[in-house]
Amino acid sequence: MLFHVKMTVKLPVDMDPAKAAKLKADEKELAQRLQREGKWRHLWRIAGHYANYSVFDLASVEELHDTLMQLPLFPYMEIEVDGLCRHPSSIHEDDR
Ligand SMILES: O=C(O)C[C@H]1C=CC(=O)O1
User: Fold this and answer.
1) Helix ranges, 1-96 (H)
2) Cα 33 to the chain's mean position, in Å?
3) pLDDT, tens digit, for every residue of 31-68?
4) Cα(50)–Cα(7) distance, integer angstroms
5) Of the residues 22, 26, 27, 67, which should be mutated to test ligand 1's pocket, given the most ligand atoms within 8 Å of the CB?
6) So what does this thing catalyse (predicted)?
7) In terms of Cα–Cα distance, which of 56, 52, 59 is closest to 79?
8) Nearest-angstrom CA–CA distance, 48 and 57
9) Is the pTM of this model over 0.90?
């Protein structure tokens, strides 16, 4: 199942810079592992915002929920999710 996810990161302005740096490093490590596993298919920065548009390819809504909750930055994110399905006019057979 494909999911389009918008993540907007809102770190507290008074967060300890070392704590913020650790959270970002841990987030990057997990994000790159999930990309290597084929679960996090796209990761795009939204220009001008500390936010991203992502596409996840996961087995279920439960797996999406668990994956998002594992993200180190999860407590500091606003997350919007849309489920995706194949468009009847799409010419790309590998769209799922
Ligand atoms: O920077 C972000 O958009 C937040 C988050 C998503 C992946 C990652 O490495 O950090």
Assistant:
1) 17-36, 61-70
2) 12
3) 999 999 999 999 999 999 999 999 999 999 999 999 99
4) 9
5) 27
6) (S)-muconolactone = (4,5-dihydro-5-oxofuran-2-yl)-acetate
7) 52
8) 26
9) yes
